Amino acid sequence: MRVLVTGAAGFIGAHVCERLLSRGDTVVGLDALDAAPGDVALRRSRLQRLSGARGFTFLAGDITDAARLGEAFSAARPEGVVHLAARVGVRAPDAEAPAYADTNVTGFVRVLEACREARVQHLVYASSSSVYGAATPAPFREDAPVDQPLNLYGATKRANELMAHAYSHLHRLPTSGLRFFTVYGPWGRPDMAPLLFLRALAKGEPLRLHGDGRMRRDFTFVDDVAEAVLRVLDRPPSGSPPHRLLNVGHGEPVALGDFVGLLERHWGTKARVTSVPSAPAEMVSTWADTSRLEAVTGFRPRVSVDAGVARLVAWYREWSATSR
Ligand code: NAD
Question: Which structural domains are found in the chain, ordered by start?
Fold first, then answer.
């Protein structure tokens, strides 16, 4: 398959590209790289690992730049598009709200338009567990009401789902929205709890634990997430409209305090935990019902948190020894 992956230098994007390439697909990766906030060196390292692979082309560019996006579509002539580029994180400073809207809303419409024009066979895009609000019954099901997001990021992701539905309805563009739940693993995001915790533990610095450690997250290992993305990509929806939403989570919420305990055990030292208040943008608990994903793909995330943390720690040991 010829696939265009946006956000290819990102955490999930790099893992998805690696899998697509290893099964022989032709991949064009698009990413704003140093024009987007975040750890640019890490993005470059992820790209470096992909650069030698047969069938991979990388283009630096912003999804809100229609001309550059058009070049990426021309280069890729994609049958499938995996759209992962986004402004990420639930605790964005208010001043960044317009930038979130630019990338996550305007950028998404540009991707939809390009997919329509190119008659793409399937657009798989990243949504988020953040679309669920504080009142959603657990485990979260895709048919639960999602009109009370706790943060702007979640609101932009919900907007994506609604816009994709409209495009699927109007233009019969097959679209699948994946609601990812707290993805972690090697080459992960330095702004997210797993790597923030691990870095503090490794450096003997205070580990800032939001809430009292009882907040729960449905931690989902990145290999499982990449597997789910490929399986969904291979199965475009055929309903009317051809649009679907799928949770991609492990289905087993873990208290943050217990997650820290696993990190301590695998790293081999105790953390210096300091409690900080949880932010109003934070959900108390997330928990995916994955039966719809399983019905569509025959797959559900299966890497246990213990095994996943072991692999995260093993990667971090090697990476921190060689990179800084
Ligand atoms: P990431 O930040 O590692 O990757 C996103 C990539 O998008 C980055 O490489 C960045 O450079 C790129 N990007 C940002 N703005 C861009 C723009 N305007 N044009 C082009 N590229 C741009 O994040 P990730 O964790 O890999 O997340 C991938 C997707 O999954 C995102 O849409 C995110 O919202 C979603 N998601 C992730 C998680 C998670 O736990 N990691 C959970 C829910 C949803």
Answer: 2-183+221-249+287-302 (3.40.50.720)
